[in-house]
Each structure stands twice: as C-alpha cells, then as structure tokens.
C-alpha cells in the first residue's frame, strides 16, 4: 500500500491519530488530545530498544570446514525488538559514530522543544518496517489570510533508525499520517532543522529552539506572501490562461475521451473559481485562484482505476499527495504569487 506504514501480520498498524482518522483508515484514533506516552503506546512505538550490533561476515565454508565469521570494521547493524513478534529485526547498517535515538527520546525531544507553546500532539507512527518514525504536533495558532482563510501549521519530528537521514524537525502545513504526507511535509517545509545521530544530539535542543524562532518568522513571511495574493484581484481571462498552462489542452489527434477529461477539468476549475461556496469570501483574488486549483486537485480531479478494497476517498487522498500533484500545486503558487 502507498501509505508504507509498519503493520503486523494480523493487521495492527504502527499509527495513532488524535480525534481525526487519516485517509488510510488504519491505526488507532484517540478521543481528544494525546500525551506522548499515549501516542507511543497507541502507535506501537514503545519498547523497541533499538541498538547497534557489530556487523560480521557470514561464516566462510572451505574444503577444510567452516571458518569463523569476521567483523566488518566500523560497520554496525541497527536492530529493534519487533512490537509485533518480540523477535529481533535488522533495520539498517550504520557507522561507528551513529547514535541511536529511541522512539521515547524522539517524543521527549519534541516535547522539550515545544513545551509551553500550547502545541498538541496530532499523529505518530512508523514507516517502512520501522526504519522511519514520525511524530506530528499542531501549532497553537493558525495562519489567517485576509482574516477569512485559515491555514493550520504543524511541527513534525522525523527520525530514521537505518542511518538514511538525520533527526529532522519541520514546520509545514502538512499533517503527517503516512509516507506520502511525510514526503509532502518535507517538500512544503517552511523551515527545517536537522540533528545528526551522534552522541551530542540531545545537546542541540537549544540550537533547535532558536531554529523554531526562525520558523515562526518564516510563517510570518508566508502569511505576508499570502496576504499580497488575497489583496490583488485576478480576471477570469488571466485565470483561464494560468489553468491552461497548468493543464495543457490535448493535441487535436488525442482520443475523444482525453479531450472530454480536459473539458471536464476546465469546467471544474472555472466553477471553483467563479461559483463555489468555498471561495465565497475571497472570490476574485489571486489567493482564491490558488485555492481553486488546490481544491480541484485534492477533491475533484479524476483518479485512476482503484485497487480492490481502496475507497474513492483513499484514492483521491493518495493522488493528491503524490509527487505530480504536489509539483502542480507548487507551480500554481509560483504563477499566482505577487512580487513584494
């Protein structure tokens, strides 16, 4: 499945969410806000005891018999205790300087970073067989665009147990619930801070706090940019040119069904721009035009044939978070933004 969440053979899933179920409908949804302990327990992230083991070669078989294994200098395997079976599982291969950050430390770092800020824990989970772990918190204040449009912002802490990436802190408008949203959060991050897996990782929290201060300034800058968009009008003709740039018309030799899909796309975008209730308070602005494009991509664009058991809502969510859709939204923002 495209969510890449860590799952047991019996269907249990390493994911927990506060109040709202994710598009994949997996894991555990807790009523109200979650504490770090509740999130770790519900997402099956406790007791992994990730540790390093010296990497060795396989035993060599010779004519004279089996020889002993040999250590691989400076190389270690990261191993966890499986939350599903209790058995040891290899997660990756790392170097001698790699320092394990346990899942419990992961949430503690995030708690320390945002204490007294009022941020609430939203989601927690594991991806790709436990190789990656995420915790996402919602910031206490949303961005208000033109006093009419609200954009929630989230702090996500992402960790890898296989040495593939550092411990990362991101601020973005993406609520991380799966691998797709993690990728989207990284792409849309307004500010980020990385902590290497070394023995001094915990000591970098003070630096991370300063980075968080920079983050809020990034948020202010983003709000200013959106404010410029909501204050500048756009004509129907200009909107038409932009959406034709984003969704080029098929060649005259294209199949009739292809032309029909394009006509349907144009009709959807035009309706969202000119008549949809979701844009009523901001209609006619460049910000409204951008919202029309993103709403079409997220809720109205056609989906490909669904796999068995996948609901239309799941198919739309998967498509909306795929790389082409994200790239299209970013291009729309670039075409509609207003120079300072």
Give your account of this protein's structure.
It contains nine helices and 14 strands. The chain folds into two domains: 15-47 and 99-223, no CATH class; 232-336, no CATH class. The protein starts with 14 loop residues before the first strand and ends with a helix. The model has no long low-confidence stretch (mean pLDDT 81). Strands 2-1-8-9-12-13-14 form a seven-stranded mixed β-sheet, with helices on both faces. It is an alpha+beta fold and 340 residues long. It has helices at 36-42, 103-114, 179-188, 205-231, 236-246, 256-274, 286-300, 312-320, 323-336, and strands spanning 15-18, 28-30, 51-56, 61-62, 65-66, 71-81, 88-95, 120-127, 132-138, 143-145, 149-151, 154-160, 167-172, 191-195.
Core attributes:
single chain; 340 residues; alpha+beta; 2 domains; seven-stranded mixed sheet; three-stranded antiparallel sheet; 9 helices; 14 strands; 36% helix; 22% strand; globular
Describe, in short, the structure shown.
By secondary structure, the protein is of the alpha+beta class. It folds into two domains: 158 residues, no CATH class; 105 residues, no CATH class.
Q: What is the helix content?
A: 25-40%
**Helix/strand order, N-terminal first:** EEHEEEEEHEEEEEEHEHHHHHH
Number of domains: 2
Order of strands in the sheet with most strands: 2-1-8-9-12-13-14
Number of helices: 9
E-strand count = 14
Round the Cα radius of gyration to an integer and report it.
24 Å
End-to-end Cα distance: 43 Å
Mind describing the biggest β-sheet? 7 strands, mixed
Helix/strand/pairing class, anyone?
Answer: alpha+beta
Mean pLDDT: 81
Q: Tell me, briefly, the overall form.
A: globular
């Amino acid at each position: 499945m495209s969510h890449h969440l860590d799952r047991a053979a019996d269907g249990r899933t390493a994911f927990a969410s506060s109040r709202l179920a994710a598009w994949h409908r997996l894991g555990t949804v807790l009523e109200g806000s979650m504490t770090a302990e509740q999130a770790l327990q519900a997402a099956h992230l406790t007791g992994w005891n990730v540790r390093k083991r010296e990497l060795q070669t396989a035993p060599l078989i010779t004519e004279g018999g089996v020889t002993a294994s040999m250590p691989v200098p400076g190389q270690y395997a990261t191993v966890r205790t499986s939350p599903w079976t209790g058995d040891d599982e290899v997660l990756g291969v790392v170097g001698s300087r790699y320092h394990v950050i346990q899942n419990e430390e992961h949430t503690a770092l995030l708690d320390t970073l945002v204490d007294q800020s009022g941020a609430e824990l939203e989601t927690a989970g594991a991806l790709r067989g436990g190789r990656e772990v995420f915790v996402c918190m919602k910031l206490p204040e949303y961005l208000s665009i033109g006093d009419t449009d609200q954009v929630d912002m989230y702090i996500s802490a992402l960790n890898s147990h296989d040495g593939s990436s550092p411990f990362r802190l991101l601020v973005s408008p993406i609520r991380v619930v799966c691998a797709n949203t993690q990728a989207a959060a990284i792409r849309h991050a307004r500010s980020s801070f990385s902590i290497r897996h070394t023995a001094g990782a915990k000591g970098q929290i003070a630096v991370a706090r300063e980075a968080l201060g920079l983050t809020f300034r990034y948020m202010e800058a983003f709000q200013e940019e959106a404010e410029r968009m909501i204050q500048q009008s756009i004509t129907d003709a200009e909107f038409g040119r932009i959406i034709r740039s984003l969704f080029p018309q098929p060649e005259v030799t294209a199949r009739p069904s292809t032309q029909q899909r394009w006509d349907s796309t144009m009709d959807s975008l035009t309706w969202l721009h000119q008549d949809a209730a979701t844009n009523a308070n901001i209609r006619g602005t460049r910000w409204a035009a951008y919202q029309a494009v993103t709403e079409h991509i997220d809720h109205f664009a056609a989906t490909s044939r669904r796999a068995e058991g996948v609901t239309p809502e799941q198919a739309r969510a998967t498509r909306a978070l795929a790389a082409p859709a994200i790239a299209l939204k970013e291009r729309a923002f670039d075409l509609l933004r207003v120079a300072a």
